[in-house]
Amino acid sequence: MRGRGVRGPLRAAAQAVVGVSLGANFTRERAGGGVGGMAGSAAGLLLFTACATAASAAYLTRVAGHPPTTAFFAGAPGGLNDMLAIGTEAGGDARTIGLTHACRLLLVGGGGWRGEHVIGCHFTQDTRVNEAFQRRGG
Question: Cα–Cα distance between 97 and 25 in angstroms, integer?
């Protein structure tokens, strides 16, 4: 993966544009009346994210045997592209980081309707969902 993709100022500009476009949608009304009301939630989210990242990195280092840099960026929550780009620049293995995030996306986000289907296996007693799943080829 080295040598491919956008590098330097163009990458920084593109990431800035994405950040500004996401931040432009953040308003006082969406924040529930102000940032002060979100302090507890933000603190909890920050703590959970730090703990989840540390636990994932420890697991990937000890159990899967990945180097610490690769394990950190493979286990860190965030966008696949960003973690792959930053992790590769930090010296991590691009394939491992990318595949780990792709598996996470498949398991968490690709579970089908309302999360009932996980990679071809369905766990529901709702016959309508089972019939629809069978029609889709599952």
Answer: 30
**Continuous segment of H or E residues that includes residue 9:** helix 8-23
Q: What is the full DSSP assignment across 16-37?
A: HHHHHHHHTT--TTTTTS-GGG
Separation CA 26–CA 116 (nearest Å): 31
pLDDT in tens, 2-61: 555 667 788 778 878 887 777 777 666 666 655 566 777 778 889 999 999 999 999 999
Q: What are the structure tokens assigned to 61, written together?
A: 């280092």
Q: What is the pLDDT of residues 49-100, one digit of tens each?
A: 999 999 999 999 999 899 999 999 999 988 888 898 999 999 999 999 999 9
Instruction: Give how far the C-alpha of residue 88 lies from the chain's centroid of Cα atoms, to the nearest Å.
Output: 16
For 132, residues 6+ apart whose C-beta sits below 8 A from its C-beta are 113
**pTM (predicted TM-score):** 0.57
Residue 5, amino acid: G
Residues belonging to the chain: 138
Distance CA 118, CA 123 (A): 8
